[in-house]
From TrEMBL:
Gene3D superfamilies with a match to the protein in the record: Aldolase class I
Protein keywords: Schiff base
Pfam families named among the record's database cross-references: TAL_FSA
One of the protein's GO biological processes: carbohydrate metabolic process
Keyword Cytoplasm in record: no
InterPro entries hit by this protein: Aldolase_TIM, TAL/FSA, Transaldolase_AS
Organism: Chromobacterium sinusclupearum
PROSITE patterns found in the cross-reference section: TRANSALDOLASE_1 (PS01054)
Presence of keyword NAD: no
Protein name listed in UniProt: Fructose-6-phosphate aldolase
Length: 233
């Protein structure tokens, strides 16, 4: 079994929101940043400068997706990206020629991430090819009426039984429940859009009420309210 199996779930951010990337980096949570063609196009800046900024902003990996379908073109793009930094992971759609491309890149020592995954067979194939990461689109799988949690559990069990190194990376995670599905399944990584990442730190009415009771009790007693140990200045 690969050394990565059984370790803590990696947190990646699927965003180019620099403030959130800094937040996760400062907490020591950040394993890397994922991008896709839509994210980079929305930046309305030269792609090269955006990628440079993301590499400078955090010490982890940076996943960048190819934008063509045939293997020869995918390989050319991938090799140019990999030459830019050894921290770049190449995202390849797990269909058609993409499998050939991932196999070739992994043989060359260029790490890949199988993306656009909706079925467990795509994850199994990525495992057989020695791909570093396989990213199922959890929210889209659920929107299609399928059981994303079952797909995670089944795929993780298969990879573990076969001793494959591929880490499943939960992607398109749009809710805290989907995040917890990833944690329960024991998969290797999850990549979160900005809104889902923020939800991890949000309060709830129950928490707010409990904290309010603590504060009320503290302020009602002059010995606690005036304690020098708890001054805020």
């Amino acid at each position: 079994m690969d050394e990565h199996q059984g370790t803590d779930m990696q947190i990646w951010l699927d965003t180019i929101d620099f403030s959130l990337i800094r937040h996760a980096r400062q907490l020591g949570l950040l394993a890397g940043v994922t991008t896709n063609p839509s994210i980079l196009a929305a930046a309305k800046q030269p792609v090269e400068s955006v990628l440079d900024a993301l590499l400078d902003l955090q010490p982890g990996k940076l996943a960048v997706q190819v934008t063509c379908d045939d293997s020869a073109s995918q390989l050319r793009q991938a090799r140019r990206l990999a030459a830019k930094s050894d921290r770049i992971v190449i995202k390849i759609p797990a269909i058609g020629d993409g499998f050939q491309t991932m196999a070739a890149l992994e043989r060359e020592g260029i790490p890949t991430l199988a993306t656009a995954i909706f079925e467990s067979r795509q994850i199994v194939m990525a495992g057989l090819l020695g791909v570093h990461y396989a990213a199922p689109y959890l929210n889209r799988i659920e929107q299609a009426g399928r059981d994303a949690a079952l797909l995670l559990q089944e795929s993780q069990q298969i990879l573990q039984r076969q001793g494959k190194r591929t880490l499943i990376m939960g992607a398109a995670v749009k809710s805290l429940e989907q995040f917890m599905q990833c944690a329960r399944a024991g998969i290797g990584a999850v990549t979160l859009p900005a809104d889902t990442y923020r939800q991890l730190f949000a309060s709830t009415p129950d928490v707010d009420a409990a904290l309010a009771r603590f504060d009320s009790a503290w302020q009602a007693n002059p010995f606690t309210a005036r304690s020098a140990l708890f001054l805020t200045e």
